[in-house]
Task: structure prediction
Amino acid sequence: DAEITQSPRHKITETGRQVTLACHQTWNHNNMFWYRQDLGHGLRLIHYSYGVQDTNKGEVSDGYSVSRSNTEDLPLTLESAASSQTSVYFCASSDRQVNQPQHFGDGTRLSIL
Amino acid sequence: QKEVEQNSGPLSVPEGAIASLNCTYSDRGSQSFFWYRQYSGKSPELIMFIYSNGDKEDGRFTAQLNKASQYVSLLIRDSQPSDSATYLCAGTSGGGADGLTFGKGTHLIIQP
Result:
């Protein structure tokens, strides 16, 4: 079955370090997304991609970057981790057709000390 | 700024009754709407999506959309304790390709 896999599931790191969260989907979806989920804020869009070599900023993109070198993967990088980036991160994907639902990975719980 | 508003709850409903979850949105350009269910510590799971005015039914679930009133709802019939979760309403104006705007979710409790 097609799926979307995130790794690691849990990570603890220190402020100032670079962190990369992996997202791999086997749906062959063109669209991929990264969200963060925090108490009191719900899910907020960080970055999204329509396809290879395409990336776009979302609502809360400061301090994050993504790159899309193939259809299956959209890694999320925190260039210099800050305590405010402690959160649960979800990757999602959807088909290129209009109004298609997004399928979510299991999430990565990231703690920055 | 696009906003999706939900009552955070908790909404408590007796087992077997109808649970009614509501959502309003600010962006008149929003085209389609999605309801996700999220159990504590888990990822969002798609329940239903709707993009035409009116009702859409799938098993025990009915989604309702009123674009004139900018209102979306989800009805759960014959509520079960396993329906206890947080329900997230999300909308999009770009057909979904530019991401979803989520509400903060409604915590639903089904009382046995």
